[in-house]
Design the sequence.
């Protein structure tokens, strides 16, 4: 399912948040989606011919934003 009500970068992420992503082939269970519709997030698409983004890319985009907002807490210094 697509069309989340909020852009992923407009959300304030907290350290105890959970990010849940569905399988590329099946998405998330419909019951879970129905109970949490207001929590869906949207990653903008710029090519109307593209069906979707790769799951790993979606996870990387949203996780990076969540970590960025928290100052990359816990990162390993080199």
Sequence:
């Amino acid at each position: 399912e697509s069309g989340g009500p909020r852009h992923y970068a407009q959300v304030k992420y907290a350290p105890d948040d959970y990010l849940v992503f569905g399988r590329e082939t099946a998405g998330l269970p419909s019951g879970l989606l129905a109970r949490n519709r207001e929590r869906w997030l949207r990653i903008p698409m710029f090519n109307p011919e593209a069906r979707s983004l790769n799951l790993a890319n979606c996870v990387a985009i949203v996780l990076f934003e969540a970590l960025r907002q928290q100052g990359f807490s816990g990162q390993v210094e080199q």
Observations:
- The first strand starts at residue 6 and ends at 7.
- The first helix runs from residue 30 to 35.
- The CA atoms of residues 3 and 42 lie 6 Å apart.
